Amino acid sequence: MATDKLALSLGLVRRAGKLTVGAPLVLEDLRRGKAKLVILARDVSENGKKKILALAGHRGVPVRESAMTKSDLAHAVGVSRSVAAVCVPAEFLALVTASL
After folding, report:
1. Which of 8, 9, 64, 95 sits most deeply, having the most CB atoms within 10 A of its CB?
2. What superfamily does domain 2-99 belong to in CATH?
3. pTM for the full predicted model
């Protein structure tokens, strides 16, 4: 299943210490030009989604909406709070993109 592959890939990036987790930090990475791919949970708020899409569009960073919920995404990356968005750096772009 694609979501299982994505969860495994995101978990690997997280364990490597390279995954940005949470909408506020994702927005900061977008502002700094560090983001190469943003993955949104399917149940992210419309307001949060709009902010991320606007900044990512301005920076030319692709955004993918996952089939995973915020809770699923949190579980995949090993955090206890819900996660609306994650940001993938350049060195793991191929791994995560292949899992989408």
Report:
1. 9
2. Ribosomal protein L30/S12 (3.30.1330.30)
3. 0.92
